[in-house]
């Protein structure tokens, strides 16, 4: 079964073709990162404009790369939310045209389901499975008892992890996108500052990163005011240690409580080396999977994989009224 | 027998969804429906309905004409994306037309001004003249302060802010523009984004 995935929820225009929820025949990603860089973050109206500009060419490159024809496609899977509404609508409109033109069923996919299913490309999901979803917009622990069934057991009460990384990076004057830079510098620094680990001892699976972020920003401000010499790398390392300590502790506890057979890490922050290293070191009794780096960030292959499983588990296809939804719930 | 021309027209840059189907120059069906801020949901089902009624498959469309704005940014993107994809997938010609020209075509006055609200006293504006059913642009799409513009310009016979486009009239005019490279088709926003404007000021 050939599934075409379409993803445009933020600043990446992507179209992919995946066979049987596993084999990626094409995964073309047009990134706008260089455009938004100048603004220090994604500008929604610019993102929407760029999606319209690039959309048909991304489809074309993808179908050519896959070496199949549109009429061979069995299902179109498109991200319907959450995300930037103007961006989502471009992908949704384009996907609907493909569906109508070739009379192919279309199915709307939750962006996070996509991130989770990115893991199925190189691994096989084993249930019960615990997903730690970490990205610029999400920090969630999701339990899956079987395919395409998601139960949220914890989430952030304020900032998402990726968001905290980006804000800290901005204060430290690191180039956009700051998250990966913080991770890189953290590899060279030491945890000198022992920042607080928010909600570390709470008995639930909630997260909070806003306070930690403020703490880092304040200390940086104070040290700078006093003209004290400090290493950015130590700042990054201290911040990263605090964040990953909390993430790993809660993931480990949840995995134990729900007796899962597999832990998967999903979302852009799944590319973080500090997190990958710590989770692999500290959780050794349950297999832990990460998507390879290209499938951590937003891409349409993951949407196609999720589409395959959503359809296969008996979920009905959508019709042409399918809409973008910036606040879609999983 | 000559293959007949089947033109699909799409404009979603205003509060109205406008779709029209012309076979050999005759409008055989259309949709002109107010559905403020819900174009994303409405357009494709309406298009499906229009095509089914005429018993034409989307693939059989031989040309697409799309309103490229100015107007609602989100709205115009939906129509342009749809037109772009149809043109690309079926390798058929796509032509653009100003949404203001489509509006103006609904009037039979000799001197027409078309207007789309752009908030804070501003409006996207264009002026047209018509003689013997042939429409010509006299002032092309601009963003103006309404009060200032009206003080300094001749008052037209009619100001059009709403109206079902007359596609047969548009086809007779020279107001459509052929898109050479479909992948380069984008809306005519007439304005850079606020972020770009602010960056310029710094
Ligand atoms: Zn994402």
Topology, pairings included?
The complex is a heterodimer of chains A (330) and B (202).
Chain A: E1 2-7, E2 12-19, E3 23-31, H1 33-37, H2 44-66, E4 75-81, H3 85-102, E5 106-110, H4 111-117, H5 119-122, E6 129-134, E7 139-144, E8 151-155, H6 161-171, H7 178-186, H8 210-225, H9 232-257, E9 262-266, H10 273-282, E10 288-289, H11 293-296, H12 300-312
Parallel strand pairs in A: 1-4, 4-5, 6-9, 9-10
Antiparallel strand pairs in A: 1-2, 2-3, 6-7, 7-8
Helix pairs in contact in A: 2-3, 4-12, 6-7, 6-8, 7-9, 8-9, 9-10
Chain B: E1 6-11, E2 16-23, E3 26-34, H1 39-53, E4 63-67, H2 73-90, E5 94-97, H3 99-104, E6 111-117, E7 122-131, E8 134-145, H4 146-152, E9 158-160, H5 167-172, E10 177-178, H6 194-201
Parallel strand pairs in B: 1-4, 4-5, 6-9
Antiparallel strand pairs in B: 1-2, 2-3, 5-10, 6-7, 7-8
Please give a structural write-up.
The complex is a heterodimer of chains A (330) and B (202). Chain A is of the alpha/beta class and 330 residues long. Chain A folds into 2 domains: 2-116 and 296-312, 2-Layer Sandwich (Nucleotidyltransferase, domain 5), CATH 3.30.420.40; 125-290, ATPase, nucleotide binding domain (Nucleotidyltransferase, domain 5, 2-Layer Sandwich), CATH 3.30.420.40. Chain A has helices at 33-37, 44-66, 85-102, 111-117, 119-122, 161-171, 178-186, 210-225, 232-257, 273-282, 293-296, 300-312; strands spanning 2-7, 12-19, 23-31, 75-81, 106-110, 129-134, 139-144, 151-155, 262-266, 288-289. In chain A, the strands form 2 sheets. In chain A, strands 3-2-1-4-5 form a 5-stranded mixed β-sheet, with helices on both faces. In chain A, strands 8-7-6-9-10 form a 5-stranded mixed β-sheet, with helices on both faces. In chain A, a hairpin with a 6-residue loop joins strand 7 (139-144) and strand 8 (151-155). In chain A, helix 6 crosses helix 7 (178-186), helix 8 runs antiparallel to helix 9 and helix 9 packs across helix 10. Chain A starts with a strand and ends in an 18-residue tail after the last helix. With 202 residues, chain B is an alpha/beta fold. Chain B has a single domain (6-201), classed as 2-Layer Sandwich (Nucleotidyltransferase, domain 5). In chain B, 30% of the residues lie in helices and 33% in strands. Chain B contains 6 helices and 10 strands; from the N terminus they run E-E-E-H-E-H-E-H-E-E-E-H-E-H-E-H. The longest helix of chain B is centred in the middle third of the chain and has 18 residues, at 73-90. The termini of chain B are far apart. The mean pLDDT of chain B is 95. Chain A binds chain B through residues 38-39, 43, 45-46, 48-49, 51-53, 55-57, 59-60, 70, 85-86, 89-90, 92-94, 96-98, 100-101, 319-321, 323-324, and chain B through 40-41, 43-45, 47-48, 58-59, 73-74, 77-78, 80-82, 84-90, 182-187, 189, 193-196, 199. Bound molecules: zinc ion. Residues 111, 115, 135, 267-268, 298 of chain A line the site of zinc ion.
């Amino acid at each position: 079964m050939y599934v075409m995935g379409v993803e445009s929820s933020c600043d990446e225009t992507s179209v992919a073709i995946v066979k049987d929820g596993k084999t990626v025949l094409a995964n073309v990603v047009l990134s706008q990162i260089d455009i938004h860089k100048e603004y220090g973050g994604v500008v929604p109206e610019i993102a929407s404009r760029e999606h319209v500009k690039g959309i048909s060419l991304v489809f074309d490159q993808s179908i050519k790369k896959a070496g199949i024809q549109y009429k061979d496609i069995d299902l179109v899977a498109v991200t319907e939310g959450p995300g930037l509404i103007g961006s989502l609508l471009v992908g949704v409109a384009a996907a609907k045209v493909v569906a109508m033109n070739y009379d192919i069923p279309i199915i709307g996919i939750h962006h996070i389901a996509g991130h989770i299913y990115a893991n199925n490309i190189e691994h096989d999901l084993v249930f019960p499975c615990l997903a730690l979803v970490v990205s610029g917009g999400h920090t969630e622990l999701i339990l899956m008892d079987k395919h395409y069934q998601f139960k949220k057991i914890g989430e952030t009460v304020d900032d998402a992890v990726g968001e905290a990384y980006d804000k800290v990076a901005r204060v430290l004057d690191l180039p956009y996108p700051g998250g990966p830079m913080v991770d890189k510098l953290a590899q060279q620094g030491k945890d000198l500052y022992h920042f607080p680990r928010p909600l570390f001892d709470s008995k639930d699976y909630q997260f909070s990163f806003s306070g930690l972020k403020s703490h880092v920003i304040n200390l940086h401000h104070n040290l700078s005011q006093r003209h004290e010499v400090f290493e950015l790398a130590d700042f990054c390392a201290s911040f990263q240690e605090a964040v990953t300590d909390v993430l790993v502790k809660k993931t480990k506890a949840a995995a134990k409580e729900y007796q899962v057979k597999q832990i998967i890490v999903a979302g852009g922050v799944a590319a973080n080396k500090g997190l990958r290293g710590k989770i692999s070191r500290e959780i050794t009794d349950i297999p832990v999977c990460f998507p390879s780096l290209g499938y951590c960030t937003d891409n349409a292959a993951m949407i196609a994989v999720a589409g395959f499983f959503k359809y296969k588990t008996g979920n009905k296809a959508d019709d042409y009224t399918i809409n973008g939804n910036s606040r879609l719930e999983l | 027998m000559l293959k007949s021309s089947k033109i699909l027209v799409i404009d979603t840059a205003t509060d109205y969804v406008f779709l029209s189907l012309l076979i050999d120059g005759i409008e055989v069906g259309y949709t002109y429906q107010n559905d403020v801020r819900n174009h994303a949901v409405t357009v494709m089902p309406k298009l499906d309905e229009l095509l089914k009624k005429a018993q034409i498959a989307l693939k059989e469309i031989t040309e697409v004409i799309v309103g490229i704005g100015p107007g609602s940014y989100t709205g115009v993107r939906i129509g342009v994306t749809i037109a772009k994809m149809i043109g690309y997938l079926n390798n058929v010609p796509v032509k653009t037309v100003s949404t203001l020209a489509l509006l103006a075509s609904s009037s039979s006055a000799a001197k027409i001004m078309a207007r789309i609200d752009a908030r804070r006293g501003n409006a996207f504006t264009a002026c047209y003249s018509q003689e013997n059913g042939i429409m010509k642009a006299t002032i092309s799409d601009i963003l103006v302060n309404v009060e200032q513009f009206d003080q300094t310009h001749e008052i037209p016979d009619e100001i059009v802010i709403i109206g079902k486009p007359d596609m047969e009239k548009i086809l007779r005019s020279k107001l459509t523009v052929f898109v050479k490279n479909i992948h380069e088709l984008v809306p005519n926003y007439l304005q850079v984004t606020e972020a770009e404007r602010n960056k310029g000021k710094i």
